[in-house]
Design brief:
By secondary structure, this protein is an alpha/beta fold. The chain contains eleven helices and 20 strands. Helix 1 crosses helix 4, helix 8 crosses helix 9 and helix 9 runs parallel beside helix 11.
Length: about 500
């Protein structure tokens, strides 16, 4: 699934594997699963009719994957293999699409890496756990602790869904939890792989928490005084207050009731995951839902860009999958914790500045370099190129090397130049990103080389989680892609954008 809803048949769900592992047991990682088994069945329904028969390699036969010893006769007998679609070169043991999809689900998928517990990212997996009966091993759910706790409390709780996990009352044991460390566990791995943990055969992960808008956190009940609110006007009055109490003759009685305190706003946790191919060392970065740092009450995405910049400069990061839920007509006040093209360009501009900062200190893209592990509690190992104000919008337009942040309103007003400034917080040394709309210009360091003009050259940015407006008019994916291309051409980032589609493959 590649979309962001509201159609339930195309919400977030990805299958990731290291091609070096072929189609071995536990070689597939599921990243989110808003839609899952139904989408896998659909892929087989489309491509199964084109399957061909040929002899197989015993190492990757379904019998071997199930832990059985294939007999010689079976190896000599031609078997069916998929030849098109995402499952090309997979030997299929069954005749029907649903049986082969269930084989993939039960035998090849090892772990479910969840970015956050919203239904459009977990609903498919929760429902599909009913198909785990009579299997030999538990499925693993890996996520940051806040996501694990939400899944435990609100999904596998015996009310919304049976407790099919191995924790808590009435645990069935189909699913086990793996709580990841925000920023990676430094006790694991070494070198470029330090902080990573294996999540399936051939792939390791390191995650960072990011912000996905705000949620309302209700406190326990407390008393409101008459000075703090007037009876009958507070939206937080207890339902236990009767209409009689709220009448004009009983206002004092209503005021003496206990009411919930005003809810606190809290940044909602999502995650961004670096996936590392253990054989090649190459990595991809996959985001869950994420809002712009420039409008966030708890901006955290810049930490991810700091980590990504070193990987990109070293030639290790080959692609980014990131959401862009709306086009540029969506105003900032209606983002709901998501990105638009104008905000995505700002975020990628932060990454570009960090890459340029590394390049200005002697690290060229593609060349290995020694570096300290990025951390939210350590300062950057380089100085950033200075920013300076320009007196007018026109002077900024004459600069062709500036990293720009087009900004638009819902009325379609003309875009304005801006730059995203990455700064270190004075007390805790956390990298934060703020988008300024006042004409800041990016000044390249003295002696800058060509790759500093297009610092993200060669990077593939795959757009996910596009929300379908369900109305007549141009395709929303095409609109978003064209807006991104326009912003990128002006910003000269050098990256390539593509929009993901359900049921297709992307090679990174």
């Amino acid at each position: 699934g590649a979309g962001g809803g509201p159609n339930e048949d195309n919400v977030t769900g990805f299958l990731v594997r290291s091609t070096a592992r072929q189609w071995t047991r536990d070689s597939i990682l599921a990243v989110d699963a808003g839609v899952h088994l139904a989408a896998i069945i659909k892929i087989f329904e489309e491509h199964l009719p084109r399957a061909i028969a040929r002899r197989r390699n015993s190492n990757f036969s379904p019998a071997s994957i199930r832990g059985e010893n294939p007999v010689t006769h079976d190896l000599e007998t031609p078997k069916l293999f998929m030849v098109t679609g995402p499952f090309a070169n997979l030997e299929i043991p069954y005749e029907t699409a649903k049986a082969n999809a269930t084989y993939v689900f039960r035998s090849l998928i090892s772990t479910y890496l969840i970015t956050h517990p919203h239904l459009d990212h977990v609903a498919g997996f929760a429902i599909n756990t009913a198909a785990l009966q009579q299997t030999l091993r538990r499925k693993r759910v890996a996520a940051l602790p806040s996501t694990i706790e939400a899944i435990k409390e609100h999904i596998f709780n015996g009310i919304i869904w049976p407790n099919l996990s191995d924790e808590g009352d009435g645990a069935v044991g189909f699913v086990s939890y793996d709580r990841l460390v925000d920023g990676g566990n430094v006790a694991l791995g070494d070198g470029e792989g330090r902080g990573y943990i294996e999540v399936c055969d051939g792939l390791a992960v390191k995650g960072w928490s990011v912000s996905h808008g705000e949620c309302m956190k209700h406190n326990h009940q407390g008393s409101y005084s008459s000075e703090s609110t007037e009876a009958g006007y507070s939206p937080y009055y207890s339902r236990r207050s009767s209409r009689k109490d709220m009448s004009s003759g009983n206002i004092d009685s209503a005021r003496s009731q206990t009411f919930p305190q005003t809810p606190e706003k809290k940044a909602y946790d999502s995650a961004a995951y670096f996936l590392r191919d253990e054989q090649t060392g190459k990595e991809v970065l996959i985001f869950g839902d994420v809002e712009p740092d420039s409008v966030s009450s708890n901006p955290r995405t810049a930490r991810v860009w700091q980590d990504a910049a070193a990987k990109l400069s070293s030639g290790l990061l080959t692609g980014i999958l990131i959401e862009c839920s709306y086009d540029d007509s969506q105003p900032d006040g209606m983002l709901f914790g998501h990105l638009t093209p104008r905000h995505l360009v700002v975020e990628l501009g932060v990454l570009a500045r960090l890459v340029n900062g590394l390049a200005s200190h002697g690290s060229k893209p593609g060349s290995p370099r020694k570096r300290k592990r990025p951390s939210n509690c350590h300062k950057l190992a380089f100085e950033e190129p200075r920013l300076r104000r320009t007196p007018s919008r026109h002077s900024v337009r004459r600069r062709t090397r500036s990293i720009v942040s087009p900004s638009a309103t819902a009325r379609g007003e003309s875009f304005r130049h801006a730059s995203s400034e990455a700064v270190l917080a004075s007390e805790d040394s956390e990298l934060r990103a703020t988008a300024k709309e006042d004409g800041l210009n990016h000044k390249l360091p003295k002696g800058a080389s060509k790759h500093m003009i297009s610092p993200l050259q060669g990077l593939k940015v795959v757009i996910i989680h596009i929300k379908d407006p369900l109305r007549d008019g141009p395709d929303i994916g095409h609109t978003i892609l064209e807006q991104l291309k326009g912003h990128e051409a002006e910003a000269q980032l050098g990256c390539t954008f593509m929009v993901s589609e359900s049921g297709t493959s992307v090679w990174l």
